[in-house]
């Protein structure tokens, strides 16, 4: 039986940290895919801003760019697949709830969930926006607005409480990374289970 050790992925985390802003873009693309890396973007944005090597708005911008690119990829795939894609990826109940949210709120059905921190599930809204043929320009505007606000808050907190943040990471670095990776693995497993159930139905 294969055993997954979360700490094996620590070198990847270290490489993303050393890359700085570009690392945020790469992580943002992965985090906004159908298998989100829960909380990883917020943590890396806060940590990088805490170092004060570049102005904190730079990290907020890079995180937003990565999130928008990743979110648009998921949106585009769902848009191409139509409602069939949404029904495959989401349960009927969840698909109906998200569709109703778009009919009622439109722009804010993307912008508000994009602001909310984990463990709030955001990917279903990306899929629903694409499957529901929500206009691309409005989608990008809503996604950039929501994620921009979220990562500006994260980077701002990192800048203001920089010394405390760096002290925490130096003391609890490996446990924190292990928890993040563990959450990502749980998210991946749950997504796979949900997909298999929908495919069986």
Distance between the termini: 29 Å
H-E order: HHHHHHHHHH
Strand proportion, as a percent range, falls in: under 5%
Characterize the overall form. Answer: elongated
Write a brief structural summary.
With 201 residues, this protein is mainly alpha-helical. The chain has 10 helices and no strands.
Description:
It is built from ten helices and no strands. The relative contact order is 0.17. It has helices at 10-19, 21-31, 40-51, 56-81, 83-89, 92-105, 108-115, 123-131, 136-160, 162-200. By secondary structure, the protein is mostly helical. Helix 2 (21-31) packs parallel to helix 4 (56-81) and helix 6 crosses helix 8.
Question: Which properties best describe this structure?
Answer:
mainly alpha; 10 helices; 80% helix; 201 residues
Indicate the topology.
Layout: H1 10-19, H2 21-31, H3 40-51, H4 56-81, H5 83-89, H6 92-105, H7 108-115, H8 123-131, H9 136-160, H10 162-200
